[in-house]
Amino acid sequence: MVLQPNSANGSKFPPSPQPISKTLFCCLISLNLEMYGTKYFLLVIASSSKYKARFLCLYYLSSAYLAPVEYYTKLFACEKAYVEQYDNYVKQTYRNRCVIAAADGPLALTIPTEKSGTPKCLMKDVRISDHGNWRHIHWNALVAAYRNSPFFEYYADDFRVFYEKKYAFLWDYNQEICSLVCDLIDIHPHMEGTTEYCMEFVPGEVDFRETIHPKRDWREADADFCPKPYYQVFDAKYGFLPNLSIADLLFNMGPESLIVLRDSVKGINHKE
Questions:
Q1: Which of 85, 174, 227, 249 is the most buried (most CB within 10 A)?
Q2: pTM (2 decimals)?
């Protein structure tokens, strides 16, 4: 079973069917669907006037700095995403680094963080360091890599502010950039920060917090992600580089980034 976008309401879920009962009821039916590799629930809510049916998928994601395309396919596919605040901060992850396509090949940009006074530090408490003038370096790297891309000038002012304004906490910084990217691509997932570290999940909830990781091969870790090739500035030199930062997709494809995300998720009917 495949869900297509509903042109009437812009949702990825089907429109509400006609009334079937005058009795108010709510039932949750477990369905084993081959969609995004996840078991889904069909929530049916009925009243005297109408009922609604929709698929619910709740994803748990780590916080990420200009996260890779794989991360945003989850935001495209899910109805709600919980972004982790209560995990112990780990370096060399997407929490504080992204990878872009530069003239010399893939380039990792890393946000320096302040040392914690304790052996472990929760993600929500991680502070950004001003060490090494990183804002200037990151912005110049983005300009050098994407100034010749089709949409860099169109989006440059939206991104520049994140390299001029100082943020105290990494989680806040990541979430504000993520919200901007979602708006620019025109995806609108319901995102919330977690209130505790969850280790047990009910059917319909999927944990991607450690699945999307720079040291894990997405080909093995995420069977539902199949990156759709798109134009890249240096593709003649390096070929297509999959799963780079969402900035790479946005600067190269602009509004069509939404189509690339859709076509990068297995189980979605790609026919218009």
A1: 249
A2: 0.79
